[in-house]
Amino acid sequence: MLTYAIIRGHADLVKYCEKRWGERPRFIETIGHVKECTVELHYWKSPTDDGYQDYYLLYMEHPNGKYSSNNQICDLAREAVETGKARLLTA
């Protein structure tokens, strides 16, 4: 099962990954990896954003994970950001 987190902005993504895993994510197009974590770049707009912003969706296998697919996670994360209910990770 999978677990996920959302980070807004590339600078916060890099800070978080360097703090957590000691390295930066490596991207090919809009999908990246850092250690066992997959990172996807999405352009979403929350009610507090002036325009579309870059949001990074991080997901990985976890023993306490609740989700069975990355598509399910992406739908939940997009809805959370667009409704302003997303809890964003910070470094």
List keywords for this structure.
single chain, 91 residues, alpha+beta, five-stranded antiparallel β-sheet, 2 helices, 5 strands, 29% helix, 34% strand
Write up this protein.
By secondary structure, this protein is of the alpha+beta class. The protein contains two helices and five strands, in the order βαββββα. It has a five-stranded antiparallel beta sheet with strand order 1-5-4-3-2, with helices on both faces. Strand 4 (37-44) and strand 5 form a beta hairpin. It is globular. The protein starts with a strand and ends in an 8-residue tail after the last helix. 18% of the residues are buried. The model has no long low-confidence stretch (mean pLDDT 94).
The 3D shape can be described as: globular
Low-confidence stretches: none
- Chain-averaged pLDDT: 94
Structural class: alpha+beta
* Number of beta strands: 5
SSE order: EHEEEEH
Strand content: 25-35%
- If strands are numbered along the chain, what order do they take across the biggest sheet? 1-5-4-3-2
Largest sheet: 5 strands, antiparallel
Radius of gyration from the CA trace?
13 Å
Task: State the helical fraction.
Answer: 25-40%
Number of helices: 2
End-to-end distance, in Å?
Answer: 25 Å
